[in-house]
């Protein structure tokens, strides 16, 4: 194991070595998301005798599966050259497998999947008795035109209709720290919504009331001091964010410990940090495979989050069956990480922090862009190519032409031309909606300049 816990950019690309060249055959689209959980250990047969791990919520005695199903990104199918829709049949099958293997917590929001996630979840669960699963959704009144009491109540009531239920097990104030205290008060205090939700809990239409947090820690601290009984809180937690949170996010260590001191159960979002902890460079992957050859890279991040005793459930957006099966292996039951494991993950965290990724988690809170840019798609392609070493800088580099071609062709295949970075006008409307507080217009400009340089050099140089 390396003595230092970082690797600089030059060493990072050098470490990739032949692994990068070998990947060129598939590099034109970078790597499909399906492969991020790939491991020889994945098998449904192996799960037949395994039992899902559960945690008990002390506020309601709910026995919640430690693996929770996040419904932000559901499987889709193509319906035209430019449009996709939720693949309900595939989604139904994923929910059926989840229920069969013990997953009983499903988290959604009225803003997920362009407003279709709640309805799709209701359809998938309609065959099951209501007491066999826990429904979780949110008051996603992010934009100023939804701050009013009337608009917020409409969002709340529409969730009951979409989910086809007369009670919600876990209801969230959604991303309360975004925009700071002023925006928080406009969304929940000035309009009387905070008082309304507490009364709804008293009436039983909300069984557990809590909030999800991104952003200004003053809002986090304020909510803990209100005297309101909180049944749970959802935070971004992983082995990067534990001590090295980026943007306006706060170290998960502080958030977790403050909640634990108050006996408030913790729910975990972004255990993979938008997939960054499932798709790693060669050196990091090798460290993990030396430790446990059959375990997937992603499983380490889930084990890290689930090993904390006050964590009630760890949410995962499992778009593909492979994702679900791998996570079922991880949580049926959970094998906690050891002290040596944590030291290794800290070393890997140092390496990840040192290479030039954009800290986008593909949450899509920035969408839709008023100018049609696929912001998460642009960042996802860029990050994938960084991780795989498909990031040519100088003409003198080995395989420069192949790498340049791979980046450009992959870009066009991943993101339609009219939705690429060059169409950003820098309006900045996306910045205040981004939980990671990425300078999205600045990054779009930087990526566009890089792409244009590659294109210009391709035109000026015979392939």
Describe it.
This protein has 463 residues and is α/β, with parallel strands linked by helices. The chain is built from 16 helices and 12 strands. The longest helix has 21 residues. The chain is globular and about 70 Å long.
Summarize it.
The protein has 463 residues and is α/β, with parallel strands linked by helices. The chain has helices at residues 9-22, 88-100, 117-125, 149-163, 180-189, 193-203, 217-224, 241-244, 252-261, 282-291, 297-306, 321-331, 339-354, 375-387, 400-414, 440-460, and strands at 54-56, 63-65, 67-70, 76-78, 84-86, 105-107, 134-139, 168-173, 206-212, 232-236, 266-269, 311-316.
β content, as a range? 5-15%
Q: Per the principal axes of the C-alpha atoms, what is the gross shape?
A: globular
So what's the CATH class of the largest domain?
Alpha Beta
Largest sheet: 8 strands, parallel, barrel
CATH architecture of the largest domain, by name, is: Alpha-Beta Barrel
In whole angstroms, the N-to-C terminal distance is: 41 Å
Order of helices and strands: HEEEEEHEHEHEHHEHEHHEHHEHHHHH
Poorly predicted regions? 1-41
> Helical percent range?
40-55%
């Amino acid at each position: 194991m390396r003595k230092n816990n970082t690797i600089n950019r030059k060493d990072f690309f050098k470490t990739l070595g032949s692994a990068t060249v070998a990947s060129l055959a598939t590099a034109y689209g970078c790597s499909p998301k399906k492969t991020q959980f790939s491991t020889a250990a994945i098998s449904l047969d192996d799960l037949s005798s395994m039992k899902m791990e559960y945690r008990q919520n002390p506020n309601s005695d709910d026995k919640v599966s430690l693996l929770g199903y996040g419904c932000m990104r559901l499987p889709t199918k193509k319906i035209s050259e430019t449009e996709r829709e939720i693949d309900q049949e595939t989604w139904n099958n994923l929910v059926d497998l989840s229920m069969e293997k013990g997953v009983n917590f499903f988290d959604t929001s009225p803003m997920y999947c362009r407003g279709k996630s709640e309805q799709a979840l209701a359809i998938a669960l309609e065959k099951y008795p209501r007491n066999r699963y826990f429904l979780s959704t949110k008051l996603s009144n992010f934009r100023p035109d939804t701050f009013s009491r009337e608009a917020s109540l409409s969002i709340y009531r529409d969730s009951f209709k979409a989910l086809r239920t007369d009670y919600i097990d876990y209801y969230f104030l959604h991303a309360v720290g975004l925009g700071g205290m002023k925006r928080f008060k406009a969304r929940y205090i000035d309009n009387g919504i905070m008082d309304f939700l507490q009364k709804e809990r008293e009436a039983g239409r909300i069984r557990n009331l809590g909030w999800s947090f991104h952003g200004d820690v003053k809002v986090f601290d304020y909510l803990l001091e209100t005297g309101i009984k909180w049944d749970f809180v959802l935070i971004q937690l992983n082995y990067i964010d534990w001590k090295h949170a980026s943007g306006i996010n706060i170290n998960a260590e502080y958030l977790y410990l403050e909640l634990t001191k108050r006996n408030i159960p913790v729910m975990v979002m972004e255990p993979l940090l938008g997939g960054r902890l499932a798709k790693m460079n060669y050196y990091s992957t090798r460290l993990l495979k030396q430790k446990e050859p059959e375990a997937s890279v992603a499983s380490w991040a889930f084990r890290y989050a689930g090993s904390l005793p006050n964590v009630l459930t760890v949410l995962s957006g499992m778009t593909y069956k492979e994702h679900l099966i791998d996570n079922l292996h991880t949580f049926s039951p959970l094998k906690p990480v050891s002290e040596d494991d944590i030291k290794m993950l800290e070393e890997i965290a140092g390496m990840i922090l040192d290479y030039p990724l954009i800290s986008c988690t593909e949450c899509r809170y920035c969408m839709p862009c008023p100018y049609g840019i696929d912001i998460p798609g642009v960042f996802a392609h860029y990050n994938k190519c960084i991780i795989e070493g498909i990031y040519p800088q100088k003409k003198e580099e080995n395989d420069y032409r192949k790498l340049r071609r791979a980046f450009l062709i992959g870009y066009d295949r991943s993101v339609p031309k009219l939705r690429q970075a060059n169409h950003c006008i820098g309006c900045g409307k996306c910045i205040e909606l981004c939980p990671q507080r990425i300078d999205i217009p600045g990054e779009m400009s930087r990526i566009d300049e890089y792409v244009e340089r590659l294109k210009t050099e391709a035109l000026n140089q015979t392939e």
